[in-house]
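Re: the 156-residue chain
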Amino acid sequence: NRAYFLNYTPFVDWPRTLAWGGFDIALNPVLPNEFNRCKSNCKYLDFAMAGIPGVYQRFDTYDCVRDRNTALTASTEDEWYLSIRALIEQPDLRRDLAANARAHVLSCYNIDDHIGLWESTYERVAKVEPNVEAQCQPLALPQAEAGNSASETARV
């Protein structure tokens, strides 16, 4: 009989908030738009590592979620209702999804297992020649009010 909405939590406090929050279910609805399509799946990763089973929007951002294996997905109101209800009424399902999601994240997102990919990517990027030279452009500041002689041009 409790529900929490987390508004803003500083980044450094986020893992502790998840670990100590006593959360049973994570809900992550997102509007299907270009802005959200550009987001990462970090909420899934965070909730999975904290052992919190979740319901995620069926959307590009959460393609990594294996429906009914690592979490539940939904897109319609009815699907959201049924998914939330299933997690409320089935503690075994919550436990299994949380365990599977954590195992999924540890096996697929562990940087130690993929450090070679990161190194080779950075090496390739470092070899690319820049095609545009950075230039220092003058920035005109707004005109000062009458009697104020602070009107100058700044360099950025």
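DSSP finds six helices and five strands in the chain.
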